[in-house]
Amino acid sequence: MIPQSKGKMYLSDERGYNEMPWFRTYNTFNFGRYFNEHKQPFGALYVLNEDVLAGGNGFRMEIETASDIILLPIVGAITVSTDDGHNGLLEAGQVQVLHLIRGTIFEVRNPYENDLVKFLQLWIKAPRATSATLTTFDLSHKDQLHTLINNDTYSLSIGKFNGRAETTYPLKDKAKGVFVFNIEGAFEVQYRLLHNGDGLALWDVDAIEMEALSSDAIILLLEVAM
Fold first, then answer.
1. What are the helix and strand counts (H, E) for the chain?
2. pTM over 0.85
3. Element (H or E) spanning 199, and its range?
4. Which of 135, 159, 183 is the last residue of a domain?
5. Predicted confidence (pLDDT) at residue 80 exceeds the cutoff of 50
6. What domain range is 219 assigned to?
7. For residue 117, is it within any domain?
């Protein structure tokens, strides 16, 4: 492993949390009524929420600044609609990017009657419009990172790893930072230990080395403008 680089940990059990009978949300950064002076945005990334919705339920939100909204189901599927006409189903193994301008309202719903769904939301400030995209990926191809999105502002990658498998992520643009989010299992990333729901912000680094410490561990990397 290379020497420890500049970084900041965002521990899972220190995330913001809000629960209702039909909904749970865990907030890595400040969101809604949750505020912590140490949970400010990382570059253009300002929302990273892990959400759980009960069957038949949903929520609506209004965008306050032009952003790319990334939606990534972890368990099950969600329906996504906006007041400017988008409407679609998004399943585990897919990632959706929507560029929404200020004032746009979008809605996420659980299409199942009884089953819970879990998904990630990432909001990235993006003043310039980007095309809406839906990308399908296959995590059965293990021990490698799959690039899901790549544009001038950010690049998103995901991978599923066997225990003790290692990989290196070379930055596409060394002026950017990388936010690492551990979806499942345990990883060592740049000499830091990450468990489920932990995040790690890294900057002033050329490449990132990581090792899975458990079987079927899943990790998400966002290289983003600072």
1. 0, 21
2. yes
3. strand 199-202
4. 135
5. yes
6. 137-224
7. yes
